[in-house]
Design a protein that fits this description.
Layout lengths: L1 H7 L10 H4 L1 E8 L5 E12 L2 E8 L2 E10 L4 E8 L2 E9 L5 E7 L6 E7 L7
Antiparallel strand pairs: 1-2, 1-8, 2-3, 3-4, 4-5, 5-6, 6-7, 7-8
Length: 125
Amino acid sequence: MKRVILAAAMVAGLGGPAMAQRQGGYAVAGQTPDGQRYSGTLQMEAAGGNTWRVVWSVAGDSARGLGLLIPEGPLLVVGYLAGREIGVVAYAVQPDGRLLGTWTQGAGGGVGSETLTPAGGSTGK
């Protein structure tokens, strides 16, 4: 179950001039496919071009991923490895810097959701 939860803790994307402001830490809040809520942190680092390295920490577990920012969305899509399971998450990049994500992980599938909020920043809400 921890792996499913941590899988939900995924990445962030950026658009235009705000890109430099999106690198760094995020607070993670999400819900697993079976309805369990979780929270944690995420670190995102530019990897060149529109690619991003991401590391999640949720419930004492961690996951690593590589994401691609699709500017036309803007949408950030991240593939990741959590333990021995692979997963994918897609985040809609919001004007206030939050990332609204939908994810799935492992052979069991199911769909979870999560929100990434820039650490130390206000979303205006």
